[in-house]
Amino acid sequence: MDKYNLNNSYKAVVIGGSAGSFQGITRILSQLPKTFHLPIIMCLHRLKHVRNGFVEALSIKSVAQVVEPNDKDQIKKGGVYLAPSNYHMSVELGNYFAMSTEEMINNSRPAIDITLGTAAYVYRDKLIGILLSGANRDGGLGMKHIKDKGGLTIVQEPTECMIDTMPKAALSLTQIDHVMKIDQIVEFLTELDKHYK
Amino acid sequence: MVQDIDIADLKKITELVQSKYGYDFRNYAMSSFKRRMLRILELKSLSIETLLKKLNEQPAFMDDFLDELTVNVTEMFRDPGFWRIIRDEIIPGILLNHKTFKIWHAGCSSGEEVLSMAIALKEMGILQDVQLYATDLDTTILEKAKLASYPIKNMELNEKNYIRYEGKKSLKEYYQEENGKAVFDKELLQNVIFRKHDLVKGEVFNKFDLILCRNVMIYFNQSLQNEVLKKFHDSMFKYGYLAIGSKESLIWCEVANKFLVVNNEEKVYKKVKD
User: Options 3.40.50.1220, 3.40.1190.10, 3.40.50.150, 3.40.50.620; which CATH number does B80-271 get?
Assistant: First the structure.
């Protein structure tokens, strides 16, 4: 019996995180099924002027190689993508990425709201959004967009977060579907993946 | 506040701007173009209908519109590693064959990049030997670029980049502080020709040894990027260099086989075939 009532209609998973999310994200990426079917699109706050190292650090334990896409790269099944430093990363109709150097949002570039909001526009109710620990409100609005388009929303259990401002912002802006600890998020994604086999 | 714009409304705007003013935004990347439109509506407190009316009835508004539409966020010595390669590899490579040469900054925005280049060239002792062209679609921003005057609050980041570039001095030696602005030495820009140029509709106007067009084509869709890259190819001498943004690529485009990758990390290419 599937306690999350899942199906195989989803097209992508987006994940946002900031301060205190690195451990959680690493655990998710290392414990996922090796052939996780859906693309995972991540926007994590990071040091603006450190271009190298982050994607490598995330890749070490990840079951799939983490890639910082180039502008207009196609989004592929099973791909694990990370928004590059100092660029906003959007998802475009036609299933590809677009980069931009527009103004910072919530003092952030990449801004989670942009990645989540554009993904919501493209994937509508076929999207799962996950927001983890973080020290600012970026991502809250993006989660609202996902919910408004009929997508599924998950935030990390605030008590488990190193800093809970980010998930709490999302909880205050919209009706979040699930509040989960990292272990439950892993279990959820593993369960989801079974529907694609 | 307008929360969202649908594609039909975006189309109305691009068609009006195209027919009345001759600018073609139809092949701009959709999500950033939409964000720019939402931003303009919010900044100017307009609805779609009032924006269309204003564009239709007030030609003077068009300059303002262009200035807000184009993304003018930049920094001096953005990606210091890129600038070190320019100084240590690319320019010495050009100097092997030419004592004097030409550089084009395509989409120069508020001028931080061309100013960075001027400082790099000055520190190499060859500023007087290089003709620089700086072009942009947006005349308002070109006027700003000519002034070489930036909010002092931006200088912390610019200085950090310059230090990581390993410049010879302190950036402070190139500007005076006046009323909260960092006003750069005008001599740096003595060999720079600023001119309005539209990458979408503009013709090839010169041949260059080095073209920089970094984080400009990201606002275009792939078919427009392809067209612009063909124009760049036509605007370069054989063995000239093309630099694009660190998250751009030209491996997929039609003229890709006429270029060699010089540096894949910093996205510098060399034209090897006419």
Answer: 3.40.50.150
Token representation of residue A147: 């919910």
- The pLDDT tens digits for B122-152 are 999 999 999 999 999 999 999 999 999 999 9
Give the Cα separation of B17 and B61 in Å (integer): 11
Peptide bond preceding A110 in cis form (omega within 30 of 0):
yes
- The three-state secondary structure class of B257 is helix
pLDDT digits (tens, 9 = 90+) for B37-75: 999 999 999 999 999 999 999 999 999 999 999 999 999
Q: Which residues of A touch B81 (CB under 8 A)?
A: 51
Number of inter-chain CB pairs under 8 A, A vs B: 65
pLDDT in tens, A132-144: 999 999 999 999 9
Please name each of the domains of chain A with its CATH number. 12-194 (3.40.50.180)
Assembly ipTM: 0.94
- Cα–Cα distance for residue pair B191/B119, rounded to 1 Å: 12
Looking at CA atoms only, how far is residue A134 from chain B in angstroms?
24
Comparing alpha-carbon positions, the chain A residue that sits nearest to B68 is: A102
Q: Which residues of chain A have pLDDT under 70?
A: 1-2
Contacts of A82 in chain B (CB under 8 A): none
- CB contacts under 8 A, B 215-234 vs A, are 215, 217-219, 221-222, 225
Residue A94: closest CA among chain B residues belongs to which residue?
B30
